[in-house]
Amino acid sequence: MWLGKFLDIKSDIETMAAEIKRQVLKYIKKDKLTPLEFTILENIFNRKISGYDLMEKLNDQFSGQWEAQSGTIYPILSKLKKDGFLDSKDIKSPIGPLKKVYFLTEAGNHLIKYKVNKNFLEQLKFVEKFLTELSSIYVHSLLNDGVKDDQTNSKIKEVQMLLKEMSDNVIKNLPSSVIIKGFCPECNAKVDRNEAKFCAYCGASFENEVKEKELDDFKTEQN
Fold first, then answer.
1. Bigger pLDDT: 138 or 73?
2. 7-113 has which CATH code?
3. Where are the domains of the chain?
4. What is d(CA 177, CA 185) in angstroms, rounded to the nearest whole number?
5. Radius of gyration over alpha carbons of the chain, in Å?
6. CA dihedral 83, 5, 131, 147 (to 10 degrees)
7. d(CA 4, CA 1)
8. CA distance 29 to 91
């Protein structure tokens, strides 16, 4: 969750390793991102995705608090491509016609990983405090509205169960293992996971996979 009007990436670029810094400076043409631009880049990270699927993903993420519109998202995608964060290509869709998918450039990939890794623990703490405060206000509002003690206690238990369920879902949806690029983790069939969301042989999902190199990069940057 990013609160600033713009996210400064200039300072991040300055502190990157020299080799990566040279590459990023060569292709990235701006030093600030809006929160929505950064959110879009986060959602494209480690996948190829069409504009339509991206809007569906954003709408699911925002859970009705904000709705992605094509008139907003497609101009941003074009701008991020022009500024060196994204690239695109046309691929054949399951129903036949070609569709355009977007993916991070190598420079954009380096930058997003660095920005997220640098602020990861602070962002987690922020989310924890935000959820605690939000839940506390909700419970106290019940007391102020004259809800009976037994009803309040029941609501408190509901909130506790909801928060636990959310935490369990986060953990469940995290990648649980490192898999070999180019093969299905379930049936070991050779597949192109960059293009498909599911294995054509056994139906296994590729949505939550992390490549071995990217996991190694994350561990290195954390250390």
1. 73
2. 1.10.10.10
3. 7-113, 120-173, 176-223
4. 9
5. 21
6. -130
7. 10
8. 27
